[in-house]
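Supplementary Methods, section 5.1.

A reviewer requested that the exact input to the structure prediction be made available. We therefore reproduce it here, unchanged from the version used in the analyses.
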Amino acid sequence: MLFKKVILVFFVAFLSANLFAQKDTTAVNVTSKKERKKLKKINNLQGVYNPLSPSKAAFYSAIFPGAGQIYNKKYWLTPVVWGALAIPTYYYLENNSEYKRYRTAYKLRSIGLEDEFTVDGVEILSLTALESAQEQLKENRDMSLLSGVIIYVLQIIEASVSAHLLQFNTDDNLTFKPTIIQDPIKFDTASFGLTIKYTF
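The structure derived from this sequence is encoded token-by-token as follows.
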């Protein structure tokens, strides 16, 4: 029950998320080839925000898992994505084949034929045990499928967010330093503060 609530919360969070892009106010109309080359050289040196980069990374990840991470030049994440998707895929296939095995035995036993769990006329598993095994394996199979879908969606989100963050300004003028500030009025107890400094 708890797992279903967690899935519901994630589902609502994904549906309610809205993505908005900022309008590029630094766009310059350049007409001559010389000016375009000069502007391209400046952009390569400074780094210009590309609003399509996150959507490209998400698109590549949606088409082929791990491709968005390659697009972001985070090559080490690609095998992690593949491994993370391979685990639920393996368990899905394993649980599905076992489910079909117990389902076939259940059907044969229901119509009075001998199945693989009957040896020399002796039933190793009862009809109830076959039925409960089917239910458990079906639940495990569905959980594996759900886990795979969640991992697939998360790797798309990771590629998009990573593409956003790669374009984030990491200049030294942007600082975030926690400091301890002495309060002259309350000298006996220490006061804690946070200073955010932004310089132009």
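Helices lie at 2-16, 33-46, 53-63, 67-71, 77-110, 127-166. These observations are discussed further in the main text.
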